[in-house]
Amino acid sequence: MGKVRKVLYISLLVVILYILFPTALKGSTSNLFFSSPDGKRYNFADFRGKYLLVNLFSSYCPPCMVELKVLQKLHESCDTKGLQIVSLMIDRDGAPLLPKIISSRNLTYPVGLANQDILKLFPDFSITPTTYLFDPQGKRLERFVGFKNYKEWTQVLSKYVKCN
Predict the structure, then answer these.
(1) Architecture in CATH of 27-157
(2) pLDDT of residue 1
(3) pLDDT tens, 78-89?
(4) pTM
(5) Which one is predicted more confidently, 16 or 73?
(6) Rounded to whole angstroms, what are the CA distances from 105 to 1, 49, 57, 59?
(7) How much is the pLDDT for 28?
(8) pLDDT at 6 over 50
(9) Of 147, 141, 134, 122, which is closest to residue 83 (Cα–Cα)?
(10) Which region among 5-19, 57-71, 94-108 has the lowest average model confidence (pLDDT)?
(11) Do 140 and 23 meet the contact criterion of CB atoms below 8 Å apart?
């Protein structure tokens, strides 16, 4: 009976932790990697100490293509010591288009292809564009579904970093 009680106690503790600290068990940018089309490898852990805005987009999504330019403008106008923007394309079939997407929008922040490990971080992801904001410790703060223009993004981010 002691083992059963111990298992129940541990299970109850896990449930309580999940309720009190949902991002402690999921939604953290643990040690995840992605690569850009030019072969540069990025580790999410390298962005610790900054707010991280992770944009998930697809090559076939017109609002996504417009929002990439908005995110570039944010990258240029927000405090880059406090904010890192990353865009990850979710459609593998569109991978050959990624270099052209990056160059045609003059994207200078990290852009790559989302892999399965990264997509597991976003179990509530369903449509593009969807963007997630993480705090400097890598814990998920907010989820934004759909397109946001520059003014909307600066209003959201002004709670966390300075944007011009």
Answers:
(1) 3-Layer(aba) Sandwich (3.40)
(2) 52
(3) 988 899 999 999
(4) 0.80
(5) 73
(6) 64, 27, 14, 13
(7) 53
(8) no
(9) 134
(10) 5-19
(11) yes
**Any idea where the domains of the chain sit in the sequence?**
27-157
Report the C-alpha gap between 29 and 34 in whole angstroms. Answer: 12
User: Residue 34 is encoded by which pair of tokens?
Assistant: 């992605």
Tokens 């002004």 found at:
158
Q: How many CB atoms lie within 10 A of CB 16?
A: 10
Residue 132's φ and ψ, nearest 5 degrees, are: -120, 140
